Amino acid sequence: MFRPKLPDVPTPPPTVAPQQTQAPVSTGGRPVAPYLGVGAGAVATVVVLGVVLTALLAAVAVSAVSVAIAAVVLRSLVTSAHKR
Hints:
2 helices
């Protein structure tokens, strides 16, 4: 839905690959290819998600402080009313 439309990439002309003289070394079973495709979209998503979560945390903290202040004020009003 939010992915940009990229233009088609023209295919390069075929080239002759040089012969390998050594056998390829195994990488331990974990492919590296999925980590190479991380682009600017993923980074932007992480940044936006961090900003949104930080804003939500700040909103919860402000709400908790205001509720605590209201509780202290109401408690002082109730105790002062009982003393009279």
